[in-house]
Each structure stands twice: as structure tokens, then as C-alpha cells.
Design goal:
heteropentamer; A alpha/beta (240); B mainly alpha (272); C alpha+beta (355); B: 272 residues; MetI-like fold; globular; C: 355 residues; Rossmann fold; OB fold (Dihydrolipoamide Acetyltransferase, E2P); six-stranded mixed sheet; 35% strand; binds adenosine-5'-triphosphate; binds magnesium ion
């Protein structure tokens, strides 16, 4: 029965008129899950299924024929891959932005208060690797501040950075504002002025392969609409 | 050997005493992190999470797919192990090396390989697509991904057991008129039950914990392809401690399934 | 159901031609490492020969091109070790052959219980092989081989590990069973050959050195091994006159030609064979004279108690000769290792025939 | 049994013919995706990538840490397997269940558990911190993470082999006056060489492919903690096909290491 | 170096007290499953008793509290199966004991080669156990056990699988070696007991049923098993007068009291023992009269060829009695299974003594 399960969820959506498959970056898990419920409430009879994963994973899957209606990426590079592969219907649109913040353990053992403090000797700093969006943002911020960071680890994702700070093994980490917010009291954030020089944008697009193009577009609009923006804003995301 | 495969209760088991030192260290090395995890979990807060619909759906899916892929490993892996251990010598080393490859492949890459092969545009997938069969992003894809990563575990550990067991009983059975098929079912399989049990436990566990290949090849759709490890991964985006609590559920369930199957039935088959 | 095998395995120095006639039981004898078990493994299909062929009842079992797998040969093997299946209990072990042959569970169990009864092991039916003593396991293995009802039955030392009560009972059982079957039995005991075999084949170093009807071969052995098996002294030499043998180091040995044996022509290779009981021992100073007899100087090597008798091993320049004495006689002669003695054997007790 | 552990070239090996059907299917299931991967790789473009400094550094680190953790598995795992297979019966089932747990733990969660234990604020780590030892972000942490996930593979497969081999030779050796230690080195270990080889191959492979626990516990810094699988993951963010090419390097290197060690030395020890 | 063991294992119905004196060699005899190997496993420390104790040379090996592990006992075991270490070659197998005892590699190898020479297996030194024949493996196992130089040596059926040339040679070797050692040997052959053992212990059903100096016990067996082992006919009953025994079903049996045996008092349990060769067979119509003799009606069960003789098994109402005849006599009587005959044994050939 497995063959029809997912294929069916996409193909049957046209006939039932209510089912959507949204491919979204893993960092959007919390917000999009909430948005999904809201969307279903606003569109009775509709059902939103999410496939969360790394943005690059999702693009690979789409390129290999994954049945999906909407793609929300955590960065523009991956969305560009999707558009150049001709997967998107229309131009992708930015629905949220995010800026970096320094995350430190609540006790702030290394006494980090400015961006400069990150380069103090003995500070165990953890950042994202440059290959991932938060890493390239980190590089931009460091460049803007004219500093060379000496991290003890260049992590694969913000979640990994955050994990090291929460566990106390890192004295500081560079993550997004939303991540600090999402971590509750487990870390404290230290904002720095240069963060605005490296803004990360989140694009979203309905997909060509969608069997339910109108509902897909409605979802895109919903995310970019006021209700969507409120949820995203509450989580700490900036407006597009 | 098999005659006394299970050490007799009253018999002699001469373990050097010092062996308990590294053994205890090893057990502690495994145990302490688990305790460390347990210590971090605030159960009261997490019980709702653990019993949420999505968690239960993921757990169910995990158990079902892990059982299915263990069955697939059994069906494909036992013959592979037999051919490796006893088949014609020519090319055995190459065959073994091939079978080991998925073992070292980072799971995500394994998932990509499956996607390149069974995806809609893949080597095999494009032909399947023609007849209307799509594998990727279905529950079947989860089973395939799990089987792909788990199969070598069964094959390698069973091959070791088969070689240790040797083929003398099979030869005697043949002289009693038993066809190779009869020998296979009535002699070979029962004799390697401990090795087979090990292999099945390994592949069940590997399937249950499988994450990377599943995510890449099957995606992460609730109720269809989002197994518990994927749920844990997503949960970690939200709250790492909650993810740990969820993972513990996986661990407990696995321990129960494995403990019951391995401890009683399989191991008992020989010692009884 | 006749069986014929010719095969060679270079690695083991094995090169043998071997035959069993329909309904016949052949005993294969020979020293350790002679190739007896190898012969069985070849016949059963557990080993491949470098070259050769085997035919059972007109069917080719193997030759240069064909090779019938063991299960299709109709050849059952009782191996030198019991090798009971450790995961099956005793009755399931014995029922294995019938089951493999297609019998129903019920019939197979019935057959198994019958054979277990025959080997006096029915009481063990529900045990696991690990819970059996050595002799009990051997009995079960015998029952398992017999229950398979093959065209050709191969038994490798079936009476090893059996106690003095069980061995004769099983010998009688096999005597009964083998009378109707084509079988080969490997043994180290002359008694087994006497009781069970129509014909004896002696293997040595992978080759057949002697063969013939059991009684004839054991009464008039032509190889040192067969003579040892029959418990006889054995000398090899060349005839110089009828009933007279020149043995290097011992000079002329006097004996009698057995009327039923082949007369040895002068100058021919021949053997002299006599029983240990027919050898007397004297002090060198006290050798009697009289009727035609052989007298050899020898040095005592060893004395062995043998039930009511003492066996003396004495080294002559040519060979060690054994003599059986009463303990009283041995004591009177004050024998011990190193004693110089003269061995005397009446010519009438020494059989001479061509080798 | 061991006397004929290795099927003789001229001996009988009665495999049912139909067994080749599932065996072939199994081999194809493993093989075709690998071919699918190979087909995707544009070698000319990727040779510079594969021979880049960062790739080579990652490869070196991977091999070193995988060997180190395999050694750690050997030292800790062989005693654990022995105690499980032959030790006092009491509590064996619980011990086995415990040892199996890391097997089902999604690797990332395993990494978290290690972090919670050996991290600066962890159960054990806080004491290590007092004496100035910090494990996180060190190569040692990589080895620990790999050992944590690989250890059960060695233990489980070796335990199976030990049970299949039984303890009769050990008993005889003891009556010849050999102390348990002498027996361990001269009888037990040589007798289970095939099973040990399987176990080592499994844990080496698992270590080599290890990603999640390493990333979570040890971090990812070129030359220190970024093993090849981590490098592959990063590469994937940029170009999945390049990541596949890099993963193939891992596979080839692993096949060579394993093929040489397993095919010749270890398996040969018994058959020779 | 005296050894004493008392132990019980309920599960196997084993409950035995057993003793070996310093320098003594004891033969343990008994039917399959009697508990002989169990006794050895207890002494060697491979099995734990439910209760009991064992003391070797003043050291407690086990009792209710203490338990010395096998390697520290100074007890070497030749098990019923050769169990050569498959990963070591022959010479390494034999050198294992010396190496374990702390000898240098060179010395251990030297000792191993010496013992291999003794068992005539030096030519096999570099082979793997898998490349040996059954008898070759057994010889190597014997060499391995002897090379360990233990305080107490336990040999479980050492001559199983050996050929007729090797067995006597090894018997003589053991005779030489055991003369200086404290040892126990399990065997199914009276000859082994005669040649090697000072004393014999007969186990049956896990208990000692008879024990005594070898010659005495085998000449005057008091158990059916020992009589069978010595090849003697055996009847049990109660004495009615000196040399006279009432046997149920056979009436009075006439015999003679052996002067050296314990005289049986009237009404006491006693046994009558006589050799098969001393039993003659007559047709029922032709039974002769004369000197005091026993005559029993019987039905022939079976005829067995036994070398130059024929052994007749004949069932009396009480027991099966065996008689050895010449083939000529058997032919003249026209014997076959089912023939009604009368068995006659001269009173002078029947020994009667208290059980
Ligand atoms: N697997 C093997 N590889 C090589 N040589 C072997 C192998 N098995 C046996 N041999 C050798 O082949 C010869 C014949 O062995 P086989 O087992 O047939 O002797 P056997 O007559 O049965 O002796 P026994 O009376 O001791 O059982 C011996 O020299 C033996 O060492
Ligand atoms: N592992 C076991 N578990 C339970 N019972 C056993 C076990 N091994 C042997 N027995 C039983 O214990 C009794 C004594 O066995 P043991 O091996 O000591 O006999 P044995 O005198 O050596 O006989 P044999 O002459 O056949 O070797 C037998 O009845 C046997 O079936
Ligand atoms: Mg043999
Ligand atoms: Mg025994």
C-alpha cells in the first residue's frame, strides 16, 4: 500500500481539492507546523502535510521527482537550485528574514558582551560552517566587523551550534535570533550591531509539479499574509 | 561445540578475572551516557509530547518498517551469508567487499544512491515510473532505505557464525538422504540460531535507528515516512531535551522488542 | 546393488580400487591413516577425487565428468564421530533420515523408535545429544544410520566407545541387519570381520595390500598387518624347499605346508605364520633337542600380563616374536626385559605358504 | 566445527540451488544503487575536489579515528562479549539489553547523550573539567563518539560467534594447566577469529561512516574533528553530486582496508 | 599424590566415592552411561557436584565451600573425543601443556616432539588436526595429555580408534609411563585393565558396584558386568551347601569353592562363574552321564563365528549362557537358532564363591 500513500497524497489532492504537501526547511518546523494548523482552519477540508529536512536535501528530493506542492527554503541558494531546475511555478518570494545573534550559556562564563569578545583568547566559539547559510552569514558579519574568528568547531547547522552552547561546552555560538528565542531560557542572546550586515532571507514558491496549483498558491499567500507573518514574527523572524 | 554451545550452568567457564575490568569499563561507557540522558529528561513535561499523536504515529511507523526491513534482511541476507560462507570460492572476496560497501557509506549518501536508482528519474525508477510505480517517498521507500543500510549487518555477522559452525553436520545430513533444501531448513538454520539472532538484532536495531538514508530517499511525511528518528530530529530543532526524551522511547521499545525476542525465543532455542 | 569405486587423491597418497557385491558385507581393515575414512568420504560424496569413478547399482556416482551429490547417492555414512545434530533430540536425530526420505512425521517417528529399541537406547529418546554419554551417542548414531535404509551402508568403526555388554548385542544386531544389505564396515577388530564380513580388504598407505574371504584371510594372512590383526606371528622370506623358508637373520625356518593353502615353490616369496601360544621359551643353556623344530636366540623386550597368561615380546635379529606363557612358567624362567632366551616353535605349528 | 570451519576446496558444500535467487537479488539490491551513484559522478570535475587539502585531511582523520575506535572496541568489546557469552548467568539478559541500546539510539541522540555526560557540565565531564580535561571538540571526542556507536556491533556479533563455538576447547586447555588468561589468548581468541573479524569489520565500517554522534559531541573542525562523512555533508550543501563522489572515496578506501585485513589476514588465520 | 573423591549429582543419578593411592593406576569400568566420564569431569573441575568433596595430595579440590579451578588442580584429562585445538598444528597442540606450565618455547617444543615420537606420530608434527585421520588424532591427544605432566592423569578410553599395531605399542607406552604416575583409566577392555591397572573399579548407574585388585576381580567377578568383561558365564543364587548354588530357574548348580576365594556359607548370596570353553553342548537325547556335572536345557539363540571357534548363545530359563565350540562340533550338532540343546558344564570348571 506504500506506493500509493505518498503519490496518492499529491495526486488525489486535485480531486479532493484539499491536500497539500509542503517541503520546508527543518528550521521552520515549529512555525510551519503551527501555520499548517492555521491554514487548515482557514481552509476547511484542506490538509497540509509537511516534509521537513535540510534545504539542500529537499532540493535533491524535488529534483528526483518528489511529489510536492510548495517549497520553503531556509536560504536563497537552495531556492535558486530549485528555480534553475525549473521546479518552481513563478518567482519565489521572500516570506521571512533572520539575523544572527550571539548565544551564550545563561551564566555567560566567558563574559561575552560584544562581537569583539568572541576573539578573546580562551573563548570557545562555535559557528556554522561556511557551506551552510548561517555560516556564510557569520563570515559576512565577521568581515564587516573586521575580525577573524577562531572557532573550535564549524557546525553543520544552527541546531548543532545551539546544542554545544546549551551543553555548556561552547562559551559562545553564532546563531539566528529565532534560535535563541526558541531555546527558551537555555541560552541567552547577545545582540551585536553588525548583525544587520548579514541578513538571511527565506524564500517560498509553489511548485510546477503541483496537482493543486491554486491551493499551493493560497498557502504561499497565507504564509506571506498577516496571519503568517504574525506567527513568524512571534518566533523572532523579521519581515521580508 | 554446538553440543555444549550453551555453557552448562554447572559447567566450567574459565574467564580470566581481569576480563571483568575492561568489560565493566565498556558497560559503563555505554551505560553512563544513557544515565546522563535519563538525568536530563524532565518526564512530567515530556509525557504529553511522547504520547502525542505525531509521536505515536512515528513510533508505530518505526516499528512496522523496522520489522518489515528486518524480514527483508532475513530473506535476502541469509542466502547471501550462506553463499559467502559456503559457496564457490571464486570471487568470494569481491562479493564480500561489495556487500560491505553500504556499511561505510554515510547513510545520507546511501539515501542519495537509492534516490538516484529508484527515484522517478533513476536508473531503475524511470522504468518503474513507466508502469506507474513510484517508490520514493512511500512507506516502502522507508523499508528499502532501512534494508539497504541493515542488510550488511545481518550478512556479515551471520557469515562469521556460519564459518565458525563449519559444515560437518550438513555433510552428515546429506548422507542421510536430505536434499540441500531440507538440510538448509532442518540443519543449517537451527545450528546458527545464535549467530542469526545476533544478525537479526543488529539489523533490527540499525533499521530502527536509521535516519539519514530514510530522510533522503523517503522524505519525512507524517504517518507515511516520518519514523521516530526523523521525528526526534525534527523535535531537536524545537527542543533538544524533548528530542532526547523521545529517543528514549525508541530505546525502551527497542530494548523490549529485542530483549523478548532475543533473550527468550532465539537464544533459548539452542540452550533448551 | 553392487558397488565399485576406483579413485586417487594425490594429496593423501590415496589410490584404491574397491568393490562390494550385491548383498555382501566387506570389512575394511588397515592401520591408522591408511585411507579407510577417505574411502568412505569418497563413496558418500563428501570428498572429491582427483580422478576415478564410482558406480552403484549401475548408476555412476562420479567420474571425470559427472558427480552425483551425496543426498542423491543412496549411500549412508556412519562417520567416525557420532556427530548427532545438537539441536534435535535423540528420536528426532534418528527420524532425520526417514523424514528426509519423505516419510510422514508419524512414520518417521515410528521407524526411529524401532531402531532406538534395537540399539537399546529407547529410554534416551527425549534427550539432547549434549546429555548423552559417549557410548550412548554412538548407539544413537548407529540407529540413525540404519534408519536411513540406504542402498549402500558405510560404517566407520561402529563399535567404538561401546561397553562390553552393548558391543556384542550391537554386533549381533548388525549381523542380522547387514545380512540383507550391501555394506562396508571399517574396524580394528578381527572379531568384527569374522562376525560381520563376507570379505576383508586390507588398506595400507592408501592402497589395497590384501583382500579375500574373511576366514581365509585371517587364518592365512599374507600381510604383517593382517597377521597382527589375527594375533599371529609373521615371518617373510623365500622358500628353499617345501615347508622350508629362508628368513634373513633367522636362517631356515621349518614349517608345514597347509594342504588347503597354495603350495610355495622353491625360491618363491613366502610367509611363515604361527600362534604365540605355540612358541615356547627356554634358557639358552637348556634348549631341548628332538622333533623338527625352530630355535631362535632372542632378547626379551617386555612382559605383558594378558588375563590368565603372560605375553613375552622377544626381539630376534629379524623381527619381534611374541610368545604366550603361564605366569608360573614366566616366573620360573625369571624373565625380565633384557633376558637372553631361546624361542622354540615346533615345525608342525608353523604354517608356510606363498606370499 | 573449527576442524572443518573452512569448507575444503574438494569437500562438499550442499547449497540448495534456489538460494542463489534471493542471494543474487540481495547483491543486486546493494550493487545497483552503487552503480547508480557511479553513473552520476563526473570524475573529471571531481578529481580536484577529491584531492583537495580538506578532503585529504578529512580522509586521514577518518581513517585514524576509525582505526582508533576499532581498537577501543576490541579492547572493551571482546571482554564484554565474553562475559555476555560465558559469564555468570545472573543478569545476563539485562546486561545484553543495555549493551544493545546505543544500537537503536539515533546517532545524533547518542551524541547528545555523550555531550550530557562528558561535556563540560556533564555527569562525568564536570569532574574532568576540574582537572583541566576537556573532551568536546577534540579528536579524542571523535573516537569516543565512534566507539559509542560501534561497540555494540562488535559485542553482539562476537557474542554470537562465541556461543556458536562453545567452550569445549577452553575446558580441555584448562585441564592441561592453562590459566584462564593463557586460555583466553591461545585458545578462545584464535578459535573465534572469523567472528571477531566480522565484528571488527562491522565496527570499523560503522566508525568510518559515523556522522551524527560525532557532529553532536565532537563538532566539526578541519583536521581535528571533521571526518570524511562530515566533509561529505558539508559538500552536499554545495553540490550533492560532489558529495557522492567524495563518499565514493570513503567507500573505496574502506573496501581496500577491509578487503585486505579481512580477506587475507583474519579469514586466512583459520583456513590456512 | 593420593586422590579421593566423593560426589553426587542428582540429575545424572551419580553418587560415587572413589580413591586412588599414590602411584597407583586404577581402571574404571562400567556400561555406557554408568558415569565414568562424569567422574572424570568432576575430578578435572569441568563439572560441579551437587555435594561432595575431592582431595588430591592433601589439597582440597572442591568441597561445600571451596572450589579449585581446573587449571590449578594438577589434573590432566584425556577426554573421550580427541578435541585437538583446531587452530594449532600437531606439535603446537602437544606443546600446549608444557607452554601453559611455563616451559620456554624451545623446551616445550622439545617435550612435544619427544612425546610425539613415543606415540609414533612425529611425522605428523606440522599437520593441522583437520588433516589427521581418527586414529592419528587420538594418538596426538594421548601425547598432549602425557606431555602435561600432571599430578593426576585421567584417560578416557585412550585406545579408541587405534589400529591393531598402534594399540599394543601405546599400551606398552602407557604401562611404562603410568608405572611412575598416579592415574585413572576408563576402558571397555579387560586387557587394558590387566596390563595397566593395579586396581579396578566397576561403576554402574552412577555407583561403585565392585572394586578390587585387577587380577582378582577379573578372575572372580562378582557383578554380571565384570564377568562379561572377563568373558565368563555368570550365575547368581544362594548357596545350599559348600560349592552348591541354588539358581532360580536352573535348580542347583554344582561347582567347587576356590580355595583362595571367600568360602560361601549356606544360604548366603553367591555366584557361579565358568568359561565358555568349559561348556559343552549335546543333543537332548544324547546327554552323557558321569562325574558331577551341570546339565541345563536351553534353546540356541545365535551362533557367532569367533576366529577359529564358534560361540553359541543359548537361552536357559534363567540366563543366556555362552559356549565356545569348534566349527566342526557345531556342524556335527547341526546347530541353528531355535535348536533345543543341553548345556553341560563339569562341576570342576565352575567356581562358586560368595557375592
Ligand atoms: N583433510 C585432510 N587433508 C589432508 N590429509 C588428510 C585429511 N584428512 C586425512 N588426511 C590424511 O589422509 C590419510 C588417510 O586418512 P583417513 O582418515 O582416511 O585414515 P583412516 O584409514 O580412516 O585412519 P584411522 O584408522 O586413523 O581412522 C592420512 O594420512 C591422513 O593424515
Ligand atoms: N550434559 C549432561 N546432562 C545431563 N545428563 C548427562 C549429561 N552428560 C551425560 N549425562 C548422563 O549422565 C550419565 C553418565 O554419563 P557419562 O558420560 O558419565 O557415562 P560414561 O560412563 O562415560 O559412559 P560411556 O561409556 O558411554 O562413555 C548418563 O546417563 C548420561 O546420559
Ligand atoms: Mg578413519
Ligand atoms: Mg564416557
Amino acid at each position: 500500500g506504500g506506493t500509493t500513500a505518498a503519490g496518492g497524497s499529491a495526486s488525489s489532492s486535485a480531486s479532493s481539492g484539499g491536500s497539500l504537501t509542503v517541503f520546508a526547511a527543518a528550521s521552520l518546523t515549529a512555525t510551519f507546523t503551527e501555520l499548517g494548523h492555521d491554514f487548515e482552519a482557514a481552509h476547511p477540508g484542506s490538509k497540509v502535510n509537511f516534509n521537513f529536512g535540510g534545504s539542500s536535501d529537499l532540493v535533491s528530493q524535488l529534483q528526483n521527482g518528489a511529489p510536492a506542492d510548495v517549497f520553503a527554503s531556509a536560504d536563497q541558494a537552495n531556492m535558486t537550485k530549485a528555480t534553475s531546475a525549473g521546479l518552481a511555478a513563478g518567482t519565489p518570494q521572500i516570506f521571512a528574514t533572520n539575523v544572527l545573534e550571539i548565544a551564550v550559556p545563561p551564566s555567560n562564563p566567558a563574559g561575552i558582551h560584544t562581537f569583539q569578545d568572541l576573539t578573546k583568547p580562551g573563548v570557545r566559539l562555535v559557528v556554522c560552517a561556511q557551506q551552510v547559510p548561517c555560516g556564510s552569514a557569520t563570515q559576512k558579519a565577521a568581515k564587516a566587523a573586521g575580525l577573524t574568528l577562531k572557532p573550535v568547531s564549524e557546525e553543520q547547522s544552527v541546531t548543532d551550534v545551539l546544542g554545544k552552547v546549551i551543553s555548556g561546552d561552547a562559551d559562545a555560538g553564532l546563531v539566528y535570533v529565532t534560535d535563541v528565542k526558541g531555546a527558551g531560557g537555555k541560552v541567552s542572546g547577545v545582540t551585536f550591531p553588525g548583525s544587520s550586515s548579514a541578513v538571511n532571507s527565506y524564500p517560498i514558491a509553489a511548485l510546477k509539479a503541483s496537482k493543486n496549483a491554486s491551493l499551493a498558491q493560497e498557502f504561499v499567500d497565507f504564509v506571506r499574509g498577516s496571519q503568517g507573518q504574525k506567527v513568524l514574527g512571534d518566533a523572532g523572524f523579521g519581515a521580508p | 561445540m554446538p553440543a555444549s554451545a550453551h555453557p552448562e550452568r554447572r559447567g566450567y567457564s574459565g574467564l580470566p578475572r581481569w576480563i571483568y575490568i575492561p568489560a565493566t569499563l565498556g558497560v559503563l561507557f555505554v551505560l553512563v551516557p544513557l544515565v546522563g540522558m535519563l538525568a536530563r529528561v524532565d518526564w512530567l513535561n515530556f509525557i504529553p509530547l511522547i504520547t502525542s499523536d505525531s509521536s505515536l504515529a512515528a513510533l508505530r511507523l518505526s516499528l512496522e518498517t523496522a520489522l518489515a526491513s528486518t524480514a527483508a534482511c532475513l530473506v535476502l541476507g541469509v542466502p547471501m551469508a550462506l553463499v559467502l560462507a559456503r559457496g564457490p570460492v571464486r570471487g568470494r572476496r569481491w562479493l564480500r567487499a561489495l556487500v560491505l560497501l553500504p556499511l561505510v557509506l554515510p547513510p545520507v549518501v546511501g539515501g542519495l544512491a537509492l534516490l538516484y536508482t529508484f527515484g522517478r528519474l533513476g536508473l531503475v525508477g524511470r522504468w518503474l515510473d513507466v508502469v506507474g510505480v513510484q517508490l520514493a517517498f512511500t512507506t516502502l521507500a522507508v523499508v528499502m532505505a532501512q534494508t539497504f543500510v541493515s542488510l550488511p549487518f545481518l550478512v556479515v555477522s551471520l557469515e562469521g557464525a556460519l564459518r565458525t559452525a563449519g559444515g560437518r553436520y550438513e555433510a552428515i545430513a546429506a548422507t542421510l538422504g536430505a536434499t540441500p533444501t531440507h538440510v538448509f531448513w532442518r540443519v543449517t538454520l537451527p545450528l546458527v540460531v545464535p549467530g542469526l539472532a545476533s544478525g537479526l538484532v543488529l539489523s533490527f536495531a540499525r533499521s530502527l535507528g536509521e535516519f539519514g538514508a530514510t530522510l533522503t530517499f523517503a522524505g519525512s511525511l507524517e504517518g507515511v515516512t516520518r519514523t521516530l528518528p526523523l521525528e526526534v530530529y525534527l523535535q531537536r530543532e524545537v527542543d533538544p531535551d524533548a528530542a532526547v526524551a523521545l529517543a528514549l522511547v525508541l530505546v525502551v521499545v527497542a530494548a523490549v522488542v529485542v530483549g523478548v525476542a532475543y533473550g527468550r525465543r532465539l537464544a533459548g532455542a539452542v540452550s533448551a | 546393488m553392487s558397488f565399485r569405486l576406483e579413485a586417487a587423491i594425490g594429496e593423501r597418497g590415496f589410490d584404491t580400487a574397491f568393490e562390494v557385491h550385491d548383498g555382501e558385507t566387506v570389512a575394511v581393515l588397515g592401520p591408522n591413516g591408511a585411507g579407510k575414512s577417505t574411502l568412505f568420504a569418497l563413496a558418500a560424496g563428501l570428498l572429491r577425487a582427483d580422478s576415478g569413478r564410482a558406480v552403484l547399482d549401475g548408476r555412476i556416482l562420479f567420474d571425470d565428468r559427472a558427480w552425483v551429490p551425496p543426498h542423491a547417492r543412496g549411500v549412508a555414512l556412519l562417520a567416525q564421530e557420532p556427530l548427532l545434530f545438537p539441536h534435535l533430540n535423540v528420536v528426532e536425530n534418528v527420524a532425520f533420515g526417514p523424514r528426509a526420505g519423505g516419510a510422514s512425521r508419524h512414520d518417521a517417528r515410528g521407524a526411529a523408535e524401532r531402531w532406538l529399541g534395537e540399539v537399546d537406547a529407547l529410554a534416551l529418546a527425549d534427550r539432547r545429544p549434549a546429555q548423552l554419554s559417549g557410548g550412548q551417542a554412538q548407539r544413537v548414531a548407529i540407529a540413525r544410520a540404519l534408519a536411513a535404509v540406504p542402498q549402500l551402508l558405510l560404517l566407520d568403526e561402529p563399535f567404538a566407545a561401546l561397553d562390553v555388554a552393548a558391543a556384542p548385542a550391537l554386533r549381533r544386531l548388525l549381523r542380522r541387519v547387514l545380512a540383507k544389505r550391501t555394506a562396508v564396515i571399517i574396524t580394528h577388530e578381527a572379531l568384527d570381520a569374522h562376525m560381520l564380513a563376507d570379505r576383508v580388504v586390507v588398506l595400507e598407505g592408501g592402497r589395497v595390500v590384501e583382500e579375500g574371504p574373511t576366514a581365509e584371510l585371517l587364518e592365512r594372512p599374507r600381510s604383517r598387518f593382517a597377521a597382527g590383526l589375527a594375533g599371529l606371528n609373521f615371518l617373510q622370506g623365500r622358500t628353499t624347499a617345501p615347508g622350508r623358508l629362508r628368513v634373513e637373520g633367522l636362517g631356515d625356518v621349518f614349517g608345514v605346508e597347509r594342504p588347503e593353502a597354495d603350495a610355495a615353490l622353491a625360491g618363491e616369496d613366502a610367509v611363515a605364520v604361527f600362534r604365540p601360544a605355540d612358541v615356547s621359551i627356554y634358557r639358552p643353556s637348556e634348549v631341548p633337542h628332538g622333533s623338527p623344530r625352530n630355535a631362535w636366540r632372542a632378547i626379551v623386550e617386555e612382559l605383558e600380563p594378558r588375563g590368565p597368561q603372560v605375553r613375552v615380546h622377544a626381539a630376534t635379529p629379524r623381527a619381534t616374536i611374541v610368545a604366550d606363557l603361564t605366569p608360573a612358567a614366566a616366573a620360573e624362567l625369571d624373565l625380565g626385559p633384557g633376558s637372553a632366551v631361546v624361542l622354540v616353535a615346533k615345525a608342525a605349528a608353523v604354517a608356510v605358504y606363498s606370499a
